Amino acid sequence: MFPRISPWRRRCAPLLLLPVLLGWALAPRAEVEVLASIKPLQLLAQELVGERGQVSLLLEPNASPHDYPLKVSDMQRLNNADLVLWVGEELETFLSRPLARVAPENQLSLAALPDLHWPRYPEESQHPEEPGGHDHGHHHHGRDPHLWLDPRNGAKVARVLADRLATLDPDNADYYRDRAGALVSELDELDRSLEARLEPVAGRGFAVYHQAYGHFVQRYGLNQLTAVTESPERRPGARHLYELRQRLAGAACLFTEPYYDMSAARDLAQELDLRLGELDLLGASEAVTDYPGLLDTLADNVLECLQADS
Ligand SMILES: [Zn+2]
Description:
Blueprint: H1 7-26, E1 32-36, H2 39-49, E2 53-57, H3 72-80, E3 83-86, H4 96-100, E4 107-109, H5 151-168, H6 173-198, E5 205-210, H7 214-219, E6 223-229, H8 238-247, E7 253-256, H9 263-272, E8 275-278, H10 291-307
Parallel strand pairs: 1-2, 1-3, 3-4, 5-6, 5-7, 7-8
Bound molecules: zinc ion.
Zinc ion binds at residues 66, 146, 210, 212, 232.
């Protein structure tokens, strides 16, 4: 016996498929999917992609990009994204190998872009703080990879990114380029406003937790005296702490970061009677929801600590 198929079902089977086929034909084109390594790049991409696509984040907002164990599911996300956005091997060293297997048209390294602004690298970093110490590749190329902290770099990235998105999704090319144009104007205004706001504290000495603020410090002529550590996951050694104490004479402030164990920095601030501030260079705080806001908040926090009792 063959299973009985009702005559009705036999006749209507093609019709039953119709909604499926219609749905397929009418569904909007797949949206462009950008995967950003860290939150500052996610915020930048979001400014351009708007509601025409998806921008997701590879690392948790407060995960250190310097040292991150990649999971199998992360590999899948790297392979599935239309565009992977990262700074480069100087910062996200852990991405170098996996991205070697992703097509060049599906990835964009910001550090590789021409015409970015690069600060002079501070001289003190020429000396390793702990001889023979483990270095996981932070600042490989002798330059500060935290390039999003200069809004002029953000503007350059916006232009390049808009072109890449236009290539991936030509239907929305004008949309991406218009949004890039608007962001560039906004960043230009922000740059001038930060310059004016920070100018009064330009002479005030301070220390930062890790060697990450060159782009911001040099753009706005701030007086960074030293950094507690070169690589953020390493606590400063005894020899370096001794040098730090010398360099911190006359400092007004020590800025910690919300991502790492700050006990050594806090002890130092207490011992030397320095005010404590905090800088969130990754914009990890939920209060930071856009790229200009990340830089604006950073300036707020610099001012808050350096202006106290001035
Ligand atoms: Zn860093």
